[in-house]
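Issue: copy button drops trailing tokens. Both records pasted manually instead:
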Amino acid sequence: MTKTRRSGPDTMCLEEGIPVGKWRILKNIGIISLAFLLQFTAFQGTGSLQSSINGGLGTLSLSAVFGAIVVSCVFIPTLAIKKFTAKWTLCFSMLCYVPYLAAQFYPRTYTLIPAGVLVGLGAAPMWAAQSSYLSQVAHVYGRVTNQRVETIIVRFFGIFYLCWQSAELWGNLISGLVLSSDKNPQNTTTDYTLCGANFCSSNFDEIPNLDRPPDHEIFTIMGIYLACIFLAVLLLTCFLDPLSTFGLKQRDEEKVTVGHLLVATFRQLKRINQMLLVPLTIFIGIEQANFAADLTQAFIGCTLGIDQIGFILVGFGVCNCVCSVLFGFLTKMYGRIKILLIGLFSISACYFLMLFWKPTPDEKWMFFLICGLYAVGDSILQIQMNGIYGAIFAKNEEAAFSNYRLWESTGCLVMYALSTTLCARTKLIGALGVLAVGVTGWTIVEFRVKNGKISHETKREDSPT
């Protein structure tokens, strides 16, 4: 007869009669991390090329992705995990990305847009299932090894995000190698004054460097990417242990109704600190969209050619991985405020460079500099903002992180939707304006935290009424 114990009031059930080995747990962390690396090698590689190979339709399809995420992040994850469990939610959600890559073989409005919506509907439950799985097995590992659960969670998520962020490197390396494999060097007569901050979608057809690559090269890339997704799903299906293997049962939080979560998400907006953090959260989405839509098309593709996008972005991927590890370590030494200031300075410097620099092929090193600054800012902003939300809203994490995903996705959606109507300069200036408002809001939050004005905001609300 087995006994049931709880490792904490808000954690899972663990039956003592089920043997658990730490290496088996670590194996599952490795499997889930490798699967996401393969998955986002495919998706991030595809996303980086959209504005260049499919023009305005490509950015519209990405706006469809994030528009669907805005809706699905509130309604779908709770129902999916409750219905299918974390393991199978991961598998089914990853398969939602397949039609989007398949649509690249025949990119039309009626293929790319619906496929983008399907990606968005699958993305939210996929990320929720990943977070649920890692956090729950971290509790088991903590009990098995007699270590603090908080330390194990940070370690497991650190391993995962290192693998996930390296996908940027591999996805762009694949596209760069394929697109340059049979490239014949030639002198184009591109008017470089149309590139950079001066780039407008209306001038797309006037820039030879943005001519769509041959279909066989695009098909080769997408074939490799599709193989990556199928391999990721196969790994999860065959080698990822379900949570029941460790005696874990559905947590109480997972039994909450969708209506409860929806009310809690918008109730969270009544909190002063949450409202003040919304602009900076939106900016995080905006800068990700700027990177995928503008830096790749208006700067790299327009000036150097589409075949060089992958190679330049490899530098971004490497820098992003290094910065995630480095600044995660430095945060413990210097605190979040100093590290976040470094990230804000880096992303601001990057935007001002993009705003005033006139790109030419002779200054190729500048593209790497901009990507490096972008990587530093992006990695710090994402890590530190997650930390801020977790620290300030510790008693209402579910609603707080639902807001984080909601407003980040909103920033991406708005920027992608405007990509075909606004020129790059206007978008850069607008992003800097949102950043200024966001920094102001964050500064006020830090003052409120310093003065102890958050006690009423961290009180847990277990009922939407």
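Record 2 (pasted manually too):
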Amino acid sequence: MFQSQAYIRKQQSHMKDVLDGKKVKYEEIDISSSSEDRDKMRELCGDPKALPPQIFRGNKYLGDYQAFANAVEDEKIEEFLSK
């Protein structure tokens, strides 16, 4: 599925809003400026075509935006972030 840059930015903004609201510290990595970072993200996701946003804890892949949004909707974000 094609995702426009605006759609991706909207997802990223939602993730940041939720994490900021929960006072979760995070590092945002812009994969558009580094093919090395993009390749590492895709390798850790196990998907050579993965698009942002993706969420990790260190090098542990937690999920994509949809998994994150589902956890928020189910009120299980803390569980999602600690898996």
